[in-house]
Amino acid sequence: MDSLSAANGSFAIELYKKLNENDRKCNLFFSPLSISSALAMVYLGAKGNTAAQMSKVLQFEKAKNVHPSFQSLITEINKPGTDYLLRTANRLYGEKSFAFLDDFIGSTQKHYLADLQAVDFTGKSEDCRKDINTWVEQTTEGGQNSLLYTFIALLEQELTYEKFAEIINPSNLEKIEVDLYLPKFKLENYFDLDSVLTTLGMTDVFNVIKCDLSGMSGDNDLFLSKVVHKSFVEVNEEGTEAAAATGAVVMLRCARFIPKFVCDHPFLFFIVHKQCSHILFCGRFTSP
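^ Serpin B6, sequence as received from the core. Prediction below:
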């Protein structure tokens, strides 16, 4: 999984930079792992130049055995018995009139634990939208209740995955106790990613003529029309223990000094799966 970690990390940083171009002053939050795993399922059915472009943009050229590595990663993330709640869920929704290849369906189930749900996008698009949003809300513990809508500076510029990996390398870190002052914040972002991915070089998969998804459907009449992503994070005092009392405190002269770490200016933050070294979420907080 190490090579996949490097691939997904590089994609995360490049995607962050591209999303950051639109507005450098706004809060930003997204899940690069969610995006890359969804696109990896499309990549599973891509052939020719379409597959080559996707591999380059998603940085899969750095990874070995992409799909089995995703299988191992998803299994590790969803492993029970942890002291935190972290779950991933994948599902494919396909127009019921299309004949999807059995090999493709089997591979998505094996590597991404994803079922293919046949729906009537053509005749009942609004019902499909509601069904998808209901599934998303259920699988994210109510955190996302509307993924699909109805629709007919210096550090950041120089940041690379290699530099980021060096920063979080345990051998370069020292564990210390600090008095943390972190603002409560709640971020929610919705992204229409097809234009961003096209700018990064993933063009053919969105082109009705050039797209080659023949590994997904034998008729090869499919193309990717839209990629949407919605993410949510809330940081608050829940889970901490607090108490109040009046009294006098006497400190020894040799008492240990605990430094303050005050987050009072814009900062980047990353949520990383420690065991897998994968960036699950990344964001930028600029204002409450």
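The chain is about 35% helix and 15% strand.
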